Amino acid sequence: MTAKGGKAAEAGAAGGGAKGPKKLPMSELELMHPGHVGCLGCGACNAMRYALKATGPRTIISVPACCWAVMPGNFPNTCFNIPHINTAFEVTGASLSGIRAALDARGVKDVTVMGWAGDGGTADIGIQSLSGMVERGTRAIYVMYDNEAYMNTGIQRSSSTPVGAWTTTTPVGAIRDYKRAPKKNMVEIMVAHGIPYTATASIAWPKDLIEKVQKAMQVAGPSFIHVFAPCPTGWRYPPERTFEVARMATQSHMFPLYEVEHGVYKVKQVKKETPLKDYLAAQGRFRHLTEDEIATMQTNVDRWWRTLLARERATAELAPSP
Amino acid sequence: MKKVITGNYTASYAAKLCRAEVVPAYPITPQTSIVEKIAEFVSSGEMKAQYVKVESEHTAMAACISASYAGARTFTATSSHGLVLMHEMLHWAAGARTPVIMANVNRALAPPWSVWADHTDSISQRDTGWIQFYCESNQEVLDTIIMCYKVCEQPDILLPAMVNMDAFILSHTSEVVDVPTIEQVDAFLPRFEPEWKLDPDRPMSFGSLSPPASFYMEWRYGIQHAMDLAAKRFLDESRHFERHFGRPWGGLIEEYRASDADAVLVAMGTMASTAKEAVDQVRAKGRKVGLVRLKAFRPFPSKELREALKGAKAVGVMDRSHTFGHEGPLFSEVKAALYNAPKRPAMAGFTIGLGGRDILDSTVVGLFERLHGVAERGVTKEVEWIDLRGAEEEVAR
How crowded is residue A300: how many other Cβ atoms within 10 Å of its Cβ? Predict the structure, then answer.
């Protein structure tokens, strides 16, 4: 992939430039075929497609309860052309350790083991087995595709739901009962584990996402990628705006793209900046917020962005640990 | 080679001899020395296995299932709270048709805390689709684990199995165990090569959504069908086992002086050893009593029980667990098995030995006395709690 291609990828993902749609500079290999049953405009759908382009066919995927437990299609149909198991909600990390141990037992070295869980299955009910897997040092990629709520059960808040959001269990109502607690930061929790590689990624930057998955494949131990995957059904925006919403999330610094490799932070600078209020205004789930509430959120978003840049500076001189 | 080893170490040796390839394990009293010994075997290089140091029993079972899906022979061990924490994944293992083999040390559930023998942990996993055996000796622990791998990995069975032993009474008691060589076990037990597994060269999806009109019910019927087949297969393989190892493994039940008995007790696990002693004592006084020991709880040996109990006038069932609001679960199951028998004995249930409360031979002799009363006068009290500290109406206060 060339730098020029990279720009094309991002323009392509943004819905095409002035000269019409451009071909994405990514593998034409499709391991996720048409026929999935995800919602129109599902961000998690694209996340999977890109990730499998990155890993290639010698990949085993383990999927717990989440939207992707349903999306591959009803038995005996499947949209995957890779081996795939469904697992219980909270066991993705455990499952990855088990699959890798079996491959090791049989001397199979060339297979990528990837967990694919939602934010509820990762940040809430599955955090124990994820923590266990990372601490044990299982060689596997754990992807959390983040649609910021329990979307498969119909939009209930998770610990990854952002502050301010409406969900069916934070229904705003008369007492302004929107999501009050801050979004749990899984990447920082992974950093605290001393994980060799962790990153955030977004479907709006597919080349970046693919490169991060490929980097994770090279890691001798565990890796964790937090993929931003907007959900038109739950976030209350028209399905055709999924990539635009994803792009605005990063441009507003609500969802910064960064990676931490052996403790060294690297933040991706995107060209255009967007005020947080524009990102929020694009979605129905934030429409109840007052200007003051949005101003507070903007302050917190700016603080985290500055913190990340400071961490990048602070760790830049560190040699990657072995 | 004969060794003097505990029930726990026997389970560890069995896992090694069967060449378990993936062992996700978590410690819990009184199971811990099983997984410690396996860790020792692996670290010394004696056992070529991936020992996965998991952070809970729930994860241990989840890792076993995924490893089995990926085509490896798996083993784990647990007890009590560890087993009930696995509950969801026990259902998953059977549903996934992954032949995970597990040793469970039967221990009571809290509160109040108790680490002693009690069958509630495993009996309450009755409906998970696991084959369950209850052992009476350390030798039986070893032999049953070998038998479970042999039967459960067969392509038309593919069911998980739990081999139970009573806390401390077996787990921490040393007995003489005839331990075969690994070559002997190799010649009996082929390598695990499942027809369907996670394989990039032959990609497929496992466990996908199955709506009501699709295959869910058929998939469940498949588990029942495999259980029925397993009941027969254990008997077939028992003959092979005896020829190969030169000692019997027996069947799904064991009868002890029961064929001509008027009063028969039914029991599982180490209670049966005490009951055999009591049978001899009562027989010495000229009374015709006997014992039927259930080795298999699932598949439930209804046919064998009907045959073994057909001549009995009174049958008593010893339950080391209790279904609150009802009676001992084994009592219910044995009664149900005999309901359609041509001649039904009078039956009494004895809830006994919970939380490791000692079961003395004199206590069991007392149960036979009760059964004689039942045979002569009919059932006056269907369920009785044995050896409560005081009268039933007093201890509940």
Answer: 13
Q: Is B42 on the interface with A (CB under 8 A)?
A: no
To the nearest whole Å, the CA of B342 is away from the closest chain A CA by 45
Query: Rounded to whole angstroms, how far apart are CA atoms A289 and A302?
Result: 18
Cis peptide leading into residue A162 (ω within 30°) = no
Say if the ipTM goes beyond 0.95: yes
The secondary structure element, H or E, covering residue A273 is: none
- Nearest 5 degrees, angle CA A90-CA A96-CA A102? 135
pTM (predicted TM-score): 0.95
Where is A140: in which H helix or E strand?
strand A140-146
Residue B91: DSSP 8-state: H
CB contact under 8 A, B63 and A82: no
Domain that holds residue A187: 32-315
Q: For residue B144, give the nearest of B304, B275, B13 by alpha carbon.
A: B13
Which CATH number fits the domain that encloses residue A78?
Answer: 3.40.50.970
Peptide bond into A238 cis (omega under 30): no
Taking each helix axis from N to C end, the angle separating A206-218 and A43-55, rounded to the nearest 10 degrees, works out to 50
β-strand partners of B384? B350
**Residue among A60, A74, A87 minimizing CB distance to B214:** A74
* Domain B253-395 in CATH 3.40.50.920: yes
pLDDT tens string A217-241: 999 999 999 999 999 999 999 999 9
Q: Chain A within 8 Å of B54 (Cβ-Cβ)?
A: yes
Q: Is residue A25 part of a domain?
A: no
Q: Is A53 helix (H, G, I), strand (E, B) or coil?
A: helix
Provide the residue type at B187 as one letter: A
Q: At what angle do helices A206-218 and A3-13 cross, to 10 degrees?
A: 120
Q: Are the beta carbons of B75 and B106 closer than 8 angstroms?
A: no
